[in-house]
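note to self: dont lose this again. the chain is below, predicted strucutre after it. 157 aa total, dont forget to put it in the shared folder this time
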Amino acid sequence: MKTIVIGLGNPILGDDGVGWKVAEEVRQQLPAESSVDVRFLSLGGISLMEHLIGYECAILIDAITSDEEIGSVSVSDLKEISDYSAFHIASAHDASLQEALKLGKSIGATLPTEVKVVGIATNHIYDFSETLSPAVAGAVSKATRIVINMLSGIMVQ
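---
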């Protein structure tokens, strides 16, 4: 399966940069001959959807706010995550990824049939810093292992 791994966030906003850190670790651990593409992005919605065109599978890694313990790692199917655009009138500059994928498919774009989200729980996503908090930094290796294991499963299919 043509697969992309995307680290999401902003590396100068402390814990919001955890997606990039995990994606970097994943890239370093992939075999040199791997066909998996690894990207680092600070965007969402339609712009993110455009980066998914041509892939069959996508793994998105991002900081999330949740009731879980800071640094906990979760894996969800994008379809299981709330579509926040359903709660307001969405416009092109704030469409959810779910809505952007629907739009892309409606105009014939080839988009992933499977989108997984690896989330690392935090509550510090707006602090200017290039370092992660200790709890979130401690989750990087676990999240990396999870993504590598997911990729191993995809590559044998």
